[in-house]
Amino acid sequence: MSTCITFHGYVICGYVSMIVFYKKRRIIYFAIQNICHFLNAFSPETDIGGKHINAQLFLYFVTIASVEVFLSLFFLYQELDYYRQVVTIPTFIPDDLKEAYLFLVAFCVIAGFALSVTISGFSFLISHHLYTTQATILNLYAQKLKGRVRRMSWSVNTISDDISVFKNILFRFHEIDEALNSGVLYLYATAMCGFFNTISVMVSDSPYLKTAPAICYIVWSFFTSFWVFFELSAQGSRIIVQSEKVKRQLTECSDKLIRSSPSMSVLKVHHFLREIVMTSNIVVTGGGMFVINSSLMLTICGTLVTYGVLLSQLDSSS
């Protein structure tokens, strides 16, 4: 029962993610366009997104093809006789078309799950590379500020320019989070269903789920779900770390300026900068409900262990 629920949960979350991305397609498009223009103006020689996009696209298509192969072997070869007995075929279907109807049902199940995987993979690629771009921008800006501190080249005008750049970064990053956070929430929900489905299949006593296609599916589901959690959480933590570096460098520039030339204009700029730095919070979220960082992996691991223990106890008691 739990295997069916988590399997359908994976499909449903994938479809909901598709609806969210479709409704927010314009917002996502303009957010991507704005952050690309900002990075091109800030550092024209820097690549946008990750460096391994071609390899990731290759793995993306391999993943889609592999899941279709696993499910086709399971539904159309291994379990076809079983589903001939349990699938209720409508009475208006002629006898010579009942076999075709059964294949159509199996094809719809396979296509539905494959579409969910396709949508989730597309959502992951967009989110991952936008988060990578955010971390890259913060790292470049932190290096620029560090070089300025080393050269001791600061003034009221440079600090004012830094305030403008930092506010622009905050706005662009908030724009990206608003565009992606709902889709990322359902992407995490899809990956969680993948983990739960893996555990459900592993603890199941059904001989149908101990075959080679089922084992391949378990391995595929576990590693793809783990990769989604690991990569997004790592990029979320990287954004937080790089943003703290930028804040420290901005504060250091302002502190050294006020020590070298204390005046009313410098004090005003210093106070304004400190206020922006203290109130700013550069993070990426899932639906605005939780911050995506490495500590989220610990919470997920604890949830999976609890689910596995409860499922094992329920199976043993029944």
UniProtKB/TrEMBL annotation:
GO biological process: detection of stimulus; sensory perception of chemical stimulus
Keywords for this protein: Membrane, Receptor, Transmembrane, Transmembrane helix
Record's keyword annotation contains Transcription regulation: no
Bilayer topology: Multi-pass membrane protein
Molecular functions per Gene Ontology: signaling receptor activity
Transmembrane among keywords: yes
Main location: membrane
Record field: transmembrane: 6-22, 57-77, 100-126, 179-199, 211-230, 282-310
Source organism superkingdom: Eukaryota
One GO cellular component, as annotated: membrane
Location relative to the cell: Membrane
Alphabetical list of PANTHER family matching this protein: GUSTATORY RECEPTOR (PTHR21421), GUSTATORY RECEPTOR 5A FOR TREHALOSE-RELATED (PTHR21421:SF29)
Protein name: Gustatory receptor
Species this chain originates from: Oedothorax gibbosus
